[in-house]
Amino acid sequence: xxxxxxxxxxxxxxxxxxxxxxxxxxxxxxxxxxxxxxxxxxxxxxxxxxxxxxxxxxxxxxxxxxxxxxxxxxxxxxxxxxxxxxxxxxxxxxxxxxxxxxxxxxxxxxxxxxxxxxxxxxxxxxxxxxxxxxxxxxxx
Length: 140
Description:
Strand 6 and strand 7 form a beta hairpin. By secondary structure, the chain is α+β, with helices and mostly antiparallel strands. It is elongated and about 50 Å long. The protein is built from 2 helices and 8 strands. It starts with 14 loop residues before the first strand and ends with a strand.
């Protein structure tokens, strides 16, 4: 699974959000994705990271969460297609949608600029889920 870095080129205002609130938002979205996929979140973790190119990198960060959703290999393609269709209908932008080595990769951006990637593990016993937020500024 690839991990994308958040960038802040200074072209838009960065919303203020505590790391705890950002983590809660990522967890909520992850639970929604798992429910849509028909599975449960396992092996989860969170990590904040600084945004590259931000004017004040010491206070600007993005939150990332990773999990696995155990699913039988024969369900990966159908699950990815179902999520793609649901996300498109909800106004998400699909960035990547492909089949690789018997598995699937789906990356989308929701209306709040959260990036979500769902990718088959190798061997395809689960789908890895990566969610990262846009850049946020720690509240003063």
